[in-house]
Write a structure and sequence with these properties.
It is a single chain. This protein is an alpha/beta fold and 359 residues long. Helices cover 42% and strands 20% of the residues. The two termini are 23 Å apart.
Length: 359
Amino acid sequence: MSLRCGIVGLPNVGKSTLFNALTAGHAEVSNYPFTTIGSNIGVVPVPDPRLSELERVLQPEKTTPCTVRFIDIAGLVQGASTGEGLGNQFLGEIRQVDAIAHVVRCFKKGDVAHVFADVDPLRDIGVIDTELVLADLEVLDRAIAKRAKDWQTHPREHALERDRMLAWKESLERGDFLRGLDLDETTRRELKTAGLITGKPVLYVANVSSDIEAAACDELTRRDPGARIVVIDAELELELYQLDADERAEFMSELELTETGLDQLARAAFDLLGLISFYTVVKNKLQAWEIPLGTPAPIAAGKVHSDMEKGFIRAQVVSADELIEVGDLHEIRNRGHMKTVGKEYEVQDGDVVEFLFTG
């Protein structure tokens, strides 16, 4: 399953236009809030020049890239945490994703209705942030109330859980997102299992147009200097993806664009979770796989098939760069350049791996 990235934001900030461009799909777009009543889902390949080079030299029958599953979640409004604007339904959808792409309006366009009259990215972000914090507080309060009896009955046994959940609540009551805490991978999974949204990593998508206000994007950077921000003209991207490949290339050349904003977004969403890519070549089929940095070889094998993880013996590894240079796996083996690794080996970004296992 590819990583799931939810597209969120206020109504009419360009989410569905962006989604249509991302997937070349047909999510309904109009000049009214709540156009998207159900969440649309589209799977988008992650741009990977290294995979393209491997495909060029190996000429496999089939090539499969890593993907990001984008979910277009209908616009949130003030009061969403208490059910306004179908808020409960859409907050539930956000709880299921791995990461959030927060689309922010950074354009002036009089013919597009908006919940506010003026362009103010920080205010818009604040509305969404407040609703997500309130929603998490509600979930956490219920969880604490449910666990209180066990905490009182067995205080030592549940001390760590109690302290952790109370620390989360204290952070939320200050208005801080849980992702601002020092979270390890285990804690992130716990937050997701608990249905808490603000622990999820977020990137901001500044939706601009020809009348872009540079100051609007600058405000996003000043608000959170460490935030990931992708600047996109969603309408232009949709126009590009409605052209055939040759026309698109010509149009991009005229605009002096080396890559689309959507390529930047798909890659940013992939990088947001600290993922890396490794590759397999099996029966003349080349495939990229995504795993977190630091993943041991048996766990990486499990991405390919659960039987490989259960029966893992060892793996043989070579870097994609060397394979691209040599152009043939058999020649790599003849040179003795295939490295044999065991269960402790952490798969590296760009590894080409052959897993050996018992069936």
